[in-house]
Every structure is written in structure tokens, then in C-alpha cells.
Design goal:
- By secondary structure, this protein is of the alpha/beta class.
- 47% of the residues lie in helices and 12% in strands.
- It has 16 helices and eleven strands.
- The strands form two sheets. A six-stranded parallel β-sheet has the order 3-2-1-4-5-6, sandwiched between helices. It has a five-stranded parallel β-sheet with strand order 8-7-9-10-11, with helices on both faces.
- Helix 1 packs across helix 16.
- It is globular and about 60 Å long.
Length: 373
Amino acid sequence: MKMHIVAGARPNLLKVAPLLRAAREKYFGEIDCLFIHTGQHYDDSLSKVFIEDLEIPQPDVNFGVGSLPQAHQVGVIMEKYERLCAATMPDVLVVVGDTNSSLGCALAAAKLPCKIAHVEAGLRRHDMTIPEEVNRVLIDKVSDYHFPPHERAATNLHSDGYIYNSIHRVGDVMIDTLIYALRKLKQGGGSITSNAVRPYVLCTLHRPVNVDNKENLQQILEALDIINQSHAAVVLPLHPRTHKRMLEFDLDHYMETLRPIGPVGYLDFVALMKSASLIITDSGGIQPEAVFLGVPCVTLLDATVHPFSEACGINQTVPCDTDSIYKEAVHALRGDRAIRPYNDEWWDGRAAERILHILVRDHAGTHNSTTHG
């Protein structure tokens, strides 16, 4: 079976890593896998170390698209992917998440004689003003296989009218990657030691709605500054985008009090998450990881695509203002939340294997089907 697996940004690397590993280790000789990086976002300080930590092979193809206006970027990715398929047509295209890279390749493949598999299908915030939401809905629409990471995502797909035999609840590839990283840490991987200051709050900031808006960014930094001075040290691995905006908005004085650190690799980041007293983030992927690790989380968004993370008490979304962030952080640090165990039978580190098993099985039985979802 000829398979294309696409990544376009650093979070995508975490999701494709277990798929590439499973294809190499479990399905060697059965899957001819081409790993494509679109270059939508690529920064050595962010991506190279992730590739090394997770033992991801170098991409077979890199489109080198770079940062472009959204419609232009999707169009260029579609054109480049269509040209690639003219030279090497896959039996199945695997896309992950909700990036423009996944959308562009999926839209191009929808007009080609290959199947499309969407990993992390069915995530919804039910707000089509959000670019990622538009991408999720459109990718699901053209996909033949939908792999939701949790039960609510599967329910969303059923509600949207997708047929049952296209929906496969097999687990979350992000949890696969987290389990892999935890094993490597036990074997001595990573460079962060147990001597790190404690208690501490780990914070990540990168989402445009938070860091590209001066008022929002200032509200967040002010809350972190207060927490840092009065409750617990704040460990802030500084994303290049956030650093750039802090300088642009004259907010760099927070660098002196918060003392952010440079970007860290995934193994070191998992070590920091595991030992943190609290995580404050605007990342979607960190929320399930916090649940798996049992670390309280405050999410700087108005809604989550992982509602189980709030239902079990680990996570809480907050509006982007200083008082709300500070109050919820203190609430979590004091242990005031009612946290309930969350047990997911699919969180066993084998979601990627199950995905590939389904694709290989179906390919063996249905060589000639070209109908798209």
C-alpha cells in the first residue's frame, strides 16, 4: 500500500511520529510510506529538536511553502501536492489535525483516485469564525476515514451525518507520543533534571488570538507576573512568535521579571509538564496530555475541543483577562478543584498501530474504490 503522511507545523510532528514509527516497525514491507513536510511553519529551534527527540525520519519531500496569506498558502500546497501525486500517486493520504497543510493536501486528494484518512477528526468548537474550525470541517467532509481522538469527537461526527463505518474510535496519537516520551525519559532521555525549581507553573503561549493582540498578551503576562511573584515560579518556554510580539508591543519588560527560557525539545517539555504544579496554556494538544499526567491546567481560550478535560476537573478554560487567569490559577494551585479520574481504554500508546491496521486491511479488500466522504 502506498501511503502519504503529511505534516506542516511543529504540532503535526507529534501526531505523525507514531504513525511513521508504526509504519516502519510494524508494517515494514506492507506500507510504502512517503513522509511529506509542507514547510508551512518550520523553524530549526522548534522543529529540529522535536524530530531528534521523537526519532522522526527526515521528510522525503519538503514543499518549503513558508508563511503566506491563508488562501494563498492553501492554494500553493494544493498545487504542489497535486504535482507530487502526478509522479507518485498514493493509495491513501493521511492528514492530521487542522492545519492549512492538512486542508490543502486533502482538498487536492479529493479529486484524485486515492483515499483520505483524517487523524483527529471530529474536533469541534462550533464556531466557523475560527480558521482551524473551517479546516476541521472541510477536511472531515472530503475524508473517507475519520479517526476521532475521543468519544465527543466521534459523537460530533455522528451528529454531522457521517456514516458509521467511516468512523473509527482507536485512540489518540498525541497520547501515543506522550507515552513514548515518558518511556524515553525513564531511560535517561532529555536534559531537564529533577533539580528544577518547585513548585512551578509551566506556561506556553503561541496562539495568534492571544499573542497578536497587545491587550490580550498584556493581560496574560500581567497575570503570570503576579503568580510568579506571589505563588509559584513561572517557567515560560518562549515561542519565537510570542517573543517577537513582546518586543513589538513594548512588553519586553516582562522578560526581566518572568525570565523566560528558550524553546525546549519535546522530551524536556514532557519532563517539565510532569513535574509542574500547574500548566497554563493556549495549546489544544496539551489539554489531553495534562489529563493523562494528572496535572491541573488552565487554558487561555473561550472553549475547548476536548470537553472531557473540563468534565474531569483537570482543565478549565478562562477568558483572556488578568483577574480571571489569576483567580483560576490560584484555585488550581490550592487544590480547590474537584478532580475525578479519567480512564480511557484507548490510551495505551497503540492508536497509530490501530489506524494503520484499518487502512492496510481495507486496502487489501477494496483496491478499486475511489469514492470520497
